[in-house]
Write a structure and sequence with these properties.
Length: 194
């Protein structure tokens, strides 16, 4: 069952780290290539037990309510490791992110491992299957076509995917879901040109 909760309200009520003046935030999607907030430090990082999937609908950034795009969320998967970028931020930055990622994403506490070997706990934004915008899995061709042609206020859905794939290559991340989807989208676009 899906629920239409106001994720901004829920996120703003989270009091974890309230007494801290800095927090580690794990980025695995647009945060890998779009940092529009002040940071105190950044480090490549990984979180264990999570996989990245293009299973969240986007009607406010990379699509519209009538034609939603697809963006990433995380799914629990015991044997998987998700590679991303961790940012050390002041708690006030979360207000900005709660607004930017208001379409179904909830702050979640996770243990993370920084590239310097430090293990710490921090926050990650996750859109679960219960949120209204969740799309879930679809055949590769279908997801690729949706991503190839969706456009929203933040730009083309395909550019989100291509920038994320480039960012992951720079991190040396082996993420076959993203890279297979990237190839499939390029193929869809090439076929459309014929
Ligand atoms: C991220 O890039 O980590 C991210 C993805 C979805 C919502 C917020 C942040």
């Amino acid at each position: 069952m899906t629920t239409n909760i106001n994720t901004m309200d829920v996120n703003q009520k989270m009091t974890h780290f309230a007494e801290r003046n800095e927090i580690w935030l794990f980025g695995y999607g647009s945060l890998i290539y779009k940092v529009d907030f002040p940071i105190l430090d950044q480090q490549p990082a990984e979180i264990r037990g999570w996989k990245r999937r293009f299973w969240q609908g986007s009607h406010d950034h990379r699509g519209t309510p009538d034609a939603p795009g697809r963006v990433v969320t995380l799914l629990a998967e015991p044997d998987e490791v998700c590679v991303g970028m961790a940012y050390l931020i002041a708690p006030a930055v979360l207000d900005h992110l709660d607004f930017r990622e208001k379409n179904g994403y909830l702050r979640t506490l996770v243990p993370m491992c920084l590239v310097n070997g430090v293990e710490t706990s921090g926050l990650v934004y996750i859109a679960t299957a219960e949120n209204e915008a969740f799309l879930g899995e679809a055949p590769l061709e279908e997801m690729a076509t949706q991503i190839a042609y969706s456009v929203g206020p933040s730009g083309r859905n395909r550019d989100y995917l291509f920038q994320l794939a480039d960012g992951l290559r720079q991190l040396g991340a082996d993420d076959s879901h993203v890279f297979v989807l990237e190839s499939a989208v390029r193929q869809v676009l090439k076929s459309g040109d014929d």
